[in-house]
Amino acid sequence: MTFDCLIIGGSVAGISCGLILGSAHKKPFMADKKIGIIAHQRASALQDALFNNAYGIPAGTLGKDILAYTTQQIKDVYPHIELIENQKITSINSMGAALFEVHSNNDTVYYAKNVVIAVGNTNLFHIEGLMHYVEPHQKSIASKNRIQLKNTDHLVAPGIYVAGTLAGHRSQLAIAAGSGAAVGTDLMVKFNDGNETQSHDSIKKV
Ligand SMILES: Cc1cc2nc3c(=O)[nH]c(=O)nc-3n(C[C@H](O)[C@H](O)[C@H](O)COP(=O)(O)OP(=O)(O)OC[C@H]3O[C@@H](n4cnc5c(N)ncnc54)[C@H](O)[C@@H]3O)c2cc1C
Question: Is the shortest distance between the CB of 42 and ligand 1 below 6 Å?
């Protein structure tokens, strides 16, 4: 099976991207699109975080509770998205013709037409096939040695997108979520043959 989009990273940016793509499934151009999320969460910045300043999130919310809630939200509301938990991606190789071969640490191989890299900005980053895109993070304290992937408005190379802090954004939840959502909508436009689109629900349409 080939994913139209495989999102790598199951924290703020990755799940936010998945929520946008998942919500668009009633659009004709999304109906046949296969979306997956490699929902590894152990190394998420959310694990130790406490939120008093993130838009829409009640003050005092624990990051680890957000991780659990948003993963369950994908399962409950957008079950057509394939959630692949407890795996890390180790390499991404272009097969040409807009196809990527993606390897995980338990020797599973996935195929994807588009990949979204949302694995955070730590310098422990190591995904074979992407290392030549790594550069120092432009918006964090230099002594922390954070990294980002070279990109233009989240696009690293044809079919390769980056989201969240790894895209070069400052580390704030709302920014990471917005970055993932931006990539989700960019992919929707791509799937819609370049025509602008967005995904909204409304109480007036229910
Ligand atoms: C202690 C702490 C407190 C914070 N407090 C606040 C706050 O008060 N307000 C605020 O706005 N922000 C706060 N933040 C920042 C906020 O949590 C981050 O900006 C946000 O989590 C970044 O999201 P991200 O998706 O880019 O990266 P992350 O949340 O780091 O997620 C990256 C994900 O990728 C996964 N991953 C890593 N490698 C791989 C791989 N090879 N394959 C598959 N998956 C992989 C990880 O397990 C993780 O789930 C805080 C952060 C910390 C650490």
Answer: yes
